[in-house]
Every structure is written in structure tokens, then in C-alpha cells.
Specification:
Length: 185
Amino acid sequence: MPTLARVEFQQEAGWHWLDHYHAAGGAASGTVPGSFRFGQNVVGTDVNEPTSLLVVNTGGTFNTAVNITVGSLNGTGGTINMPSGKTLTVGALGTTDSYAGVIAGAAAFSKTGSGTMTLSGSNTYTGSTTIGSGVLQIGNGGTTGSIASVNVIDNASLAFNRSDNITFGGTITGTGILTQSGAVS
């Protein structure tokens, strides 16, 4: 297995590479669906791999035209581009995960599973954010981490963990807990 790849997809059976994704220093872009379809759990045109790990590191770009469900999302940077009307669902493995890149597009984001998902990049996706279980944390105690989503449905736990003053201009609804750590605006 190469070390420090820009975009990796791990299934239970081992590491698999998406079309046009290579180890650090190689090409770092690709589109799903392609000739590699994430294994056997594709439902229609969607990718449904709740026991898998998606890693997008600095310099990597993950483009998709379908709904994506993965068990875990991690990475040091890069961009995940999601189209309008689609959803990126993460967290079914219940692990503690951190993604420092950008989730972009008019798509939605959904957090499932008992673990904590930390988003510390400047996310620009404009669809809704849904927290069904576990914790969705925005920021990791520093001055980065944001979501552009205007509608957050919090049925578990939403935490803002920033050391500076920020303002969230969206609407938060649901039965979950809201936590503000660090500076308060």
C-alpha cells in the first residue's frame, strides 16, 4: 500500500484506488462513477459502503455525481465536490474522524454513527446538514472550520470548537444538543 496517497478508498478487503487516483506526487483527480465502482454495494447509481473509509488529503480532489455513503471520512485537505440534490453521508463506523479539506457543491451532508466527525476546513456546500447521531464538530480548537449550510437539523450533537469569534448565520433545528467551545460571538 502506498503511503500518503491523496485520495484513498479502503474497503474491508484492503486498499482500492479510484479511477485516476495515485500516490502523492501523481495525478490527484477523478470522477465517480467510473470503471471502479467501490465494490459490490452500489445501489442504483449511488455508492453505499457504510463499512468503508474515504481519505482525501491535501492536493486531492474527489468528484462525484451520486449519493455517497461511507463509514468514515478523514483527510488533511483536498476537495470533495458533490452535485445538487445529492448527499454525502459519513460516520456509520462510529469512529472519531477529522477532515480538514473542503466539501463543496449544492449537496447535503449527513452525520450518522456514534462517533465524532470534525470538519476543520472552510466547507462551502450549500445543502442541508443533518446530524442523526454522534457529534458533528465544526473546528478543532483553532481558527478554522466552517459550514456554509443554511439549514442544520441537529438530532444528536452539534459542536462549534473555535478559538476565535465566529457567527453562524444558518438555522439550527432538531432535538439535539448545541455546544459552543472557545470564543463566543
